[in-house]
What we know:
The complex is a heterodimer. By secondary structure, chain A is an all-beta fold.
Amino acid sequence: xxxxxxxxxxxxxxxxxxxxxxxxxxxxxxxxxxxxxxxxxxxxxxxxxxxxxxxxxxxxxxxxxxxxxxxxxxxxxxxxxxxxxxxxxxxxxxxxxxxxxxxxxxxxxxxxxxx
Amino acid sequence: xxxxxxxxxxxxxxxxxxxxxxxxxxxxxxxxxxxxxxxxxxxxxxxxxxxxxxxxxxxxxxxxxxxxxxxxxxxxxxxxxxxxxxxxxxxxxxxxxxxxxxxxxxxxxxx
Lengths: 115, 111
């Protein structure tokens, strides 16, 4: 597609439920990033893929968070046993190469609300 | 904890005014500095990626400068228009692929 596509745009879940957020990056982009943005904060790094390899997951806040990109294209961020503090906007970005010298192209984000 | 600070947090300017805001970041382990514009209900859009001390970039009426030795970047908007209203985010690249974002400057241009 022309840009990074994320779905759903909005997700409301009850505490304890599992959720899955999808990111479809720009075709051919090697690198894919997930960020979490809490209210009033800037985006915070969660994890990074180069093709299908998850090279950095240091930002994942707990073992309830899991991300995958099995074929090096679409990625899914899964949150198990959601908690209220997981409420945030989750942004996905892709770039043509893996270094910070390249601009990142963002999706519109998924706004997750945990009740 | 890595500190990327942006100031001011928000500002309102009249249409036609010029304005600028600041991004401060650590002066060590510098790889790159990014600026993004984020309009409401849209996705963040890359404005500039700067990598060298003294870099200056320009896109239309928006320009940016970079001082890696003292750890700051300025973003300038000349002759602000209402469509420039957005949150402007800077992000500091320390490692090969890690970006650390500031909290943004929210600009409102009043017609």
